[in-house]
Amino acid sequence: MASDAVLEFSDDNFSSEVLAADGAVLVDFWAPWCGPCRQIAPMIDELAEENPSLKIGKVNIDDNPGVASQYGISSIPTILIFKGGEITDSFLGVRPKASLQEALDSASS
After folding, report:
1. What are phi and psi of 66, to 5 degrees?
2. Which of 5, 13, 56, 103 could join 89 via S-S bond, C-beta 3.0 to 4.6 A?
3. CB 46, CB 77: distance < 8 Å
4. Residue 41 pairs with which residues in a beta bridge?
5. How far apart are CA 2 and CA 89, in angstroms?
6. What domain range includes position 55?
7. What is the pLDDT of residue 42?
8. In this structure, is residue 2 part of a structural domain?
9. Residue 1 falls within a domain, yes or no?
10. Structurally, how many domains does the chain consist of?
11. What is the DSSP string of 12-25?
12. Which of 99, 92, 88 is nearest to 47 (CA)?
């Protein structure tokens, strides 16, 4: 079960929730059938709980193919960090939590 701190981004709300956000936003592109995606889910939950001032959320690529297509997501998990509507960092596959935190810190400063 995802943490309450992790938001659900969709084709419908991506522009307002992510692209129009004031600060840094971490977006985890995932799917329920993806083993590595399920493997990193607890880490995404921890990042959301440890960074309450930042937006951290997920896009289920099966339910939201528009956003996934817009950003050329062909492999999951893919994590993109946005600031001011622009991608500031991207990660493909499973990454250490520390490297994601470092990217968030960098985008937030």
Report:
1. -65, -50
2. 103
3. no
4. none
5. 23
6. 7-108
7. 96
8. no
9. no
10. 1
11. TTHIIIIIT-SS-E
12. 99
The span from the CA of 25 to the CA of 48, in Å, is 10
Contact 91, 26 (CB under 8 A): no
Give me the pLDDT at residue 109, please: 85
Note the pLDDT of residue 3. 62
- Residue at 38 is within a domain: yes
If you search the block for the tokens 């993109």, which residue do you land on?
A: 80
DSSP 50-100: H-TTSEEEEEETTT-HHHHHHTT--SSSEEEEEETTEEEEEEES---HHHH
Q: Running along the chain, 109 residues long, what does each successive block of 10 average in pLDDT?
A: 80 97 95 96 96 95 97 96 96 94 93
Active site members: 34, 37
For residue 81, what is the domain's CATH number? 3.40.30.10
Which long-range contacts link 1-5 to residues 24+ away (Cβ below 8 Å)?
Answer: 2/41, 2/44, 2/45, 2/58, 3/45, 3/46, 3/48, 3/49, 5/45, 5/48, 5/49, 5/52, 5/56
